[in-house]
Amino acid sequence: MKRRVLVFPCGSETGLEINRSLSYSRDFELFGASSQYSNHGKYVFKNYIEMNSYIDDKSFIEELQKIILEYKIDFVFPAHDSVVLKLSEYQDKLGAIVISPTHETCKLCRSKSRTYEVFKNKINVPKMYKEFDKNIEYPVFLKPDIGQGSKGTYLAKSLEEVGFYRNLDKTLLILEYLPGREFTVDCFTDRYSNLIFVGGRERKRIYNGISVDTSPTIDARFNTMAKQINDNLNLRGVWFFQVKENKKEELTLLEIGPRVAGSMGLYRNFGINLPILSLYDRLGIDIKLIKNPGKLQMDRSLTCKYELSYYYENVYVDLDDCLIFENKINSLIVLFLYQCLNNEKKIYLLTKHEGDVLKLLSRFRIRELFDNIIQIEKGEEKSDFINELNSIFIDDSFSERYKVNKELNIPTFDINAVESLIDWKV
Questions:
Q1: Domain spanning 127-176: CATH 3.30.1490
Q2: Which of 123, 246, 259, 330 is most deeply buried (CB count within 10 A of its CB)?
Q3: Bridge partner residues of 30 (DSSP)
Q4: Interatomic CA distance for residues 99 and 115, integer angstroms
Q5: Does domain 3-100 fall into CATH 3.40.50.20?
Q6: pLDDT tens, position by position, 72-112
Q7: Domain boundaries, the chain
């Protein structure tokens, strides 16, 4: 029987990485929830729940408790720093296991100043200045004591600039500027407090606080810092910390995150799936790791997911320059056609191919994919051979699509629009 896992907020980058990590697991069933009406989670979570309460609302915990009870949720994965802190506080009252460390650990990690105070004599942390310190070395970096990503951060080159930015936000810390390379170190601690995994990755390009170009980096200093953090905090399961080089190229702690990081997919594709390992650890299973060899670099960009409102039961698809493009299978169309098979929709090949169609399909190993193969002459109209109701038509030819649309009034799709037909919900 699958254990049920609720991800909140499911549309955050962390929530989306948890979705990718637990997709197709035979042991866990995913549920996603969000208080934001417009969010990406509803496009990738098959079991999607829209919440009425926001995290700071008095009714939030009560609503979450009802969801956990109604959907028989076993585990809750918090997918935002503020949510980690909130749910860790109420983890004994929710009726499901929260995948986070203790509340005290989460509270300390949420505050940069507290984190730096705890670790200042153990590992390198940034120098913290008072606003009118005479020994300030400019430029300095300003960031909120409680924050995430790069939101609300500033580089100040003078006392006047420091004053200007702190008038905007009194919580801004005045910190030593770190000009060097930046790294995230993904970690895992099991239920015995053993540090099982330490994997560093360079943050080569950062967009909106998220590492979008990252690759593995081996550095013994990561392991030393990870052990110090693990020995001084009550951590469990997946966590990470971020460091940056100072002007002497010494690694300096930026923050500790007791949650999944959005770019942990890099190590997931090496075989180290930290979110799912966190669940197995909570089930009392001892953790073992397999890491694949070779080099791997991950680059992220905005991707598109769609929700098509048109109902259809039948798909008519062209062959030449469409399903087979430049003498190769169009993998996106085949992905869609297998999705249709899973959803018990009928698939018709409608082609003006002049050669032996069956031989060509056999060559590409897709002969059995179709409910019917309709091969017509060049002078014939494809619209005359689309006889099923609730159909869509896929063809690379604009003239063919135009005729079918005008004659039958059904949706038609060019190759580059097939992506809107893909259902990514898991």
A1: yes
A2: 259
A3: 5
A4: 21
A5: yes
A6: 999 999 999 999 999 999 999 999 999 999 999 999 999 99
A7: 3-100, 108-112+179-297, 127-176, 314-421
